[in-house]
Fold F-box associated domain-containing protein.
Amino acid sequence: MPLKCESLWTGSCVINDRLYVAGLGCNEINAQQLGFAQVYDPKQNNWNSISQMSNTMAPTFDGFVHDGTWFLKGYASEVEVMWQAYKPETTWSPVDNVMVSGCHDGVFKVSLNGQLYTLEYLRPDGEIDSWDIWRLNIYNRATDSWKELMECKLYGGHSVAAVVPLKGEICILYKNMAMNFIDVSGLHVREYIAGEVLENDIVCSHVLEV
């Protein structure tokens, strides 16, 4: 079932098996731009409107979900960038704190076991080609501050496709489907699974200890 309006700039996330979409849409009658926010329930196979954003904005790709709340970044004007937060069944609210300021462009965000982490590229590794140095940070809600946890050696930074939680670890997925895993409890890179592209099909091959 399609959205109830034509979308122009949107952000999306999944919370509790429901798909949330918000951003700027277009009125089909007079092509007027308007803000919208909707949720899709796969069990009912329908879209329903939720509360509108506190400020209409065009979302970027920097949104993330943490502790059951959707944090969405966007342009309220050509020069004004802002964050808004939405928790299901409530209303949107502007956010301006150290947590979201640490989630700047180019930083991967991942929520794992109630903690928010960022993974950011630092520099190429000077010893091994195709490997780079990254920094893992954690957010402390009590002090509203970010703390560096470790620097780690990962596969080439420009090929990272996604950073996601997986079975209690942080999984770094590369464009060729290779993977790294960061064990946050022991603060080490547990393993590297190499990916290969064969005849346009992507497969995973061997596992190497790093």
In short: The chain is about 0% helix and 60% strand. The longest helix spans residues 98-101.
